[in-house]
Amino acid sequence: MGDEEFPRWLPTIRDAYAEDMVVNGGASEEGAHAKALKDVELLFPGGKPSADQSVFIIEHDGRPVGELWLAERIDDFGHSLWIYDVHVDKQHRGRGYGKIAMRYAEDEARRRGLSAVGLMVFGGNEVARSLYRSLG
To answer: Tens digits of per-residue pLDDT, 1-13?
Structure first.
């Protein structure tokens, strides 16, 4: 993602994260908004692109159809490539772009020498869960 797209993307992803916590995680709007602000600031200090985070535009025929956000992460399960978000614009869903993005994440993990890809999804997020189930 280039410098011109990033300032538009960051508030969108922060707000979507907060909404997901409310709709699918049972959080209060106030609590979700505060957590989203805090978490995004930790990952993108000062609201600027971070060398530790990789954000890609998903394109088809040179036109954007969504975004993929990845970062290496070390946690209790080891060192993995973490999928923070995969998003396909509503009008482009159902065409396989989400699967292509997920496969790209797997390939990117291999390129980095990582043997695991991790992610988190709330139980009520059926769109995401359906994508992940379709990939096995």
So the answer is: 988 999 999 999 9
